[in-house]
Each structure stands twice: as C-alpha cells, then as structure tokens.
Amino acid sequence: MDRLDRSLLREHSTTSARVQAYAALRQAIVRAELEPGRQLSENELAAWLGVSRTPIREALVRLRDERLVEIVPQLGTFVTRISTPAVADAQFIREALECACVRRAAELATEDDIAALEDILRAQDRARDSDDFDA
Question: In the chain, what are the domain boundaries?
Fold first, then answer.
C-alpha cells in the first residue's frame, strides 16, 4: 500500500468519504497500482485513505457492480483479473470506432479545423523538444 498515490484522495477532497474512497480505489485499480488478483483488506484500505471501513465497504460494493473487484464470501475481496480475450475484444472495438471517427472527422474537416490541428501539432513538438510533458 505504500506505493499507492495519495494524491488520488486529495483530488476528491471536497466530496464525501464514500465518494473519495470509491474514486481513489477505482483509479488505483485502473492504474494497476492495485494489481489484478490482489486481495484487498478493508482495514488496510481504510488506513491508507484515512477513512473508516464503512466508506471502504460501500466503495467495494460499487466496484463489484462495475466488475473491478470480486467479493468472494468467506475468502475476501480481490481485484478482478484481466481477461485476455476481453482485452482483445475491447481493442478490436476501440480500433474500429477510432478509425471510423477519424475517417468521419477527415471528411468533415474545414480549412480552419486543419489549421487548428497543425497548431496543436506544432505545440506538441515544442513541448516534446523542451521536455515539457505537462503541457
């Protein structure tokens, strides 16, 4: 738990403990800071986030509903393992959608749109050349 990014909680500091816990845990799972297959301890998560176990429990139920964690009675709660076929299917769908979107955007692009994109590309080149990766 030491290597988890505590800024995940600060990003949601104006919301309820339940929402903060959910957002921080979800982001940690999506970023693979909580690895697939890892068993989750309500006590450890509560200590890490500085909240009671109730918001953790509520967040885990919500994450279970999103299939990001599995709650196994008498065993515990685990980060859902990644399914290789599901990833391949999602990649296929995403690629098809992105290609269709690019094709459609190219068909509808005006001269102003193209000029704006060229400006963005130049700005990206400048940021890369100056190692400004936050630009």
Answer: 7-79, 84-129
87 membership: H or E segment, kind and range: helix 84-108
Q: Please give the angle made by the CA atoms of 128, 29 and 24, to the nearest 5 degrees.
A: 85
- Going 79 to 82 to 86 to 92, the CA torsion angle's sign is positive
Q: Which residues contact 84 (CB under 8 A, 6 or more apart)?
A: none
Question: What does the DSSP 8-state code read for residue 17?
Answer: H
Which candidate, 18, 103, 12, places its Cα nearest to that of 62? 18
Going across the sheet that includes 69-72, the strands are 39-40, 76-79, 69-72
The third-level CATH classification (topology) of the domain covering 7-79 is Arc Repressor Mutant, subunit A (1.10.10)
Assign 125 to helix, strand or coil.
Answer: helix
> pLDDT in tens for each of the 135 residues of the chain?
555 555 555 555 557 899 999 999 999 999 999 999 999 999 999 999 999 999 999 999 999 999 999 999 999 999 999 999 999 999 999 999 999 999 999 999 999 999 999 999 999 999 999 988 776
